[in-house]
Hints:
The complex is a heterodimer. By secondary structure, chain A is mostly helical. Chain A has 13 helices and two strands. By secondary structure, chain B is mainly alpha-helical. Chain B has a single domain (2-348), classed as ABC transporter involved in vitamin B12 uptake, BtuC. In chain B, 73% of the residues lie in helices and 2% in strands. The longest helix of chain B has 30 residues, at 112-141. The mean pLDDT of chain B is 93. The A-B interface holds A 42, 82, 86, 90, 92-93, 95-97, 99-101, 103-104, 107-108, 110-111, 114-115, 230-231, 234-235, 237-238, 241, 275, 277-278, 280-281, 284-285, 287-288, 291-293, 295-296, 309-310 and B 2-3, 32, 36, 79, 84, 86, 137, 140-144, 146-148, 150-155, 158-159, 161-162, 165-166, 281, 284-285, 288, 320-321, 323-324, 326-327, 329-331, 333-334, 337-338, 341.
Amino acid sequence: MSVLFEILASAGLWAAVLRIATPLIFGTLGALLCERSGVLNLGIEGIMTFGAMIGWLAVYNGADLWTGIVVAALSGAVFGLLHSVLTVTLGLSQHVSGLGVTLFASSFSYYIFRLVVPVAGTPPTIEPFQPIAIPGLSDLPFIGPALFTQTTPTYLAIVLALIMAYIVFRTPVGLAIRMTGENPHAAEAQGVNPMFVRYGAVIVGSALMAVGGAFLTLSAFNSFFPTMVQGRGWICIALVVFASWRPGRALFGALLFAFFDAFQLRLQTVVEGVPYQIFLMTPYILSIAALAVMARRARVPQALMQPYRRGER
Amino acid sequence: MRFERREHRPLYLLVLTPLIAIVAALAIAGLLIAIAGAPVLEAYWKILTGAFGSKLSATETLTRATPLILTGLAAAVAFRARLWNIGAEGQFYVGAIAVAAVGSQLLANVPGAIGIPLLMIVGAVAGMILMLIPLWLRLRFAVDEVVTSLLMNFIALLFVSMLIDGVLKDPTAFGWPQSQPVPDQDTLPKLIARSRLHIGLAIAIVLAAIVHFIQSRTTFGMQSRAAGLNPQGAVFAGVPLAKTLIKVACLSGGLAGLAGAIEVLGVKGYVTTDLSPGYGYSGIVVAMLANLNPLGVVLAAIFTAIMFVGADGMSRSMGIPTYIADVTVALSLITMLVALFFGQYRIRR
């Protein structure tokens, strides 16, 4: 027991929680925005992979870190546009289109990466974001090193969750998005263009997903390698359900999830005799458990996965 | 601009759709090859000759197509009933590891005539069990099976990794994490001597025909289609929805598990964590390219195998990353979706 307490009392654990949560916060908010407008975006896994690759590649070629983030966001927007054309304009199955985007975006990023960076023993690295100590707060004992010495994108992710909550629930834009996700016909009757809203939500949401991916290569690690996203995108999709499509709860869910992940990583080093794979399974098992507990209770946007065609019911 | 549903769907569109989709995907991938600075037509010629240029390469392509036919069928039967089984990759691996476990631990002194069919059943049952978990979560807790079956893939692969690094580890493999092999007598007979091509291909093609028969000629086939087209209507018409979905899940998971079993018995004899280069995921593309038609799955699987085997050879001689095969296959899924759409709708101004 004292071992568990020791882990919980280490500032390193809590710093890791925020670090692990960051890509999940971006990805979950992105997926949430898409789904609030009625579009499930299973392209997320591939979009995160592409964002991780292209953001890293930009920096590797001399761009500064923020340019890398912007490049990643733009690439995400392009894949969001592709997903919108398939699911909004053509009204194709959101499941299959999303998987198509994921398969394409991830294989395309591996292709570009291999083309530009030849096979090498150790993958090339960049200089990633450095932790920024918030003046005053970072000097607090324990809490300072735990919470207030993160890289800038982490702070940005938390602020973004609050902004997203405000936009979704307190602004006309948020109202239009929610209406489109609940009942696009009613939204149209109110003068909202559901097609336009869905395009916007999916493009912006996909850009956020790509930024989440870029965090992996520009802040958490300093290099890109295939399969590095490791199902984080799918976990984000599960977190949206867990959060019942609310940005505030999405932030909470991502942090909770990251806590378990950081905790099992440390537990691995102190518990002997248990194969490490058991620990690595826990994030995925937790996601499934969270889905099972929340799926019936969560309030699904009523028009989620329903294509909208004018004059058709 | 708006879309209008076609009243008649001409037969030629049905045949042309996948061809148009593949040509479009190849054209876009060609652009990517050109950007990389390689002559496009030569690259495609090398892919084709790399896949079919010699007896060896042709048998290699068909060997690769075998698991793709089975995972393609797994996706096709599930998608037909709108059961989104994206977990074929995980089911493939548990099928494979179940075969390695039972084969290496229990069947050392059992003749192959009993061992081979037994191990195939073992693999299929393992895949079924893995698919029943997401289905149970859907029926019991209303959880979307897409995400759960996807997450199961990661759990399954870690489970396999744990076994081949632990209790099933081959002590003679110089420390590499690989499973103990299945007994020699359980290796599948070759279709063509001195090649890797084994009778698994014949089994896969026969299964495609059987699945086609089940879907088009049996009550279960009709019920599973009804469950996919209109679940409420199906229930109203007396289709037992849950039972039908359970059967579909067993068929789908079983086919994917069998794919893993046959890959172990026919090609490798043991399991590693790179046994599948994404056969489960490629199966989804195969099923869509075939428009969920079980017989079409065979052709779509061969196309996919051509891309993978051909790209290997082309990559070596032209310096284009092999990932171009994955890109083309993924693109063909997207172009197929679009082509299918324009098979059903026409543009009205």
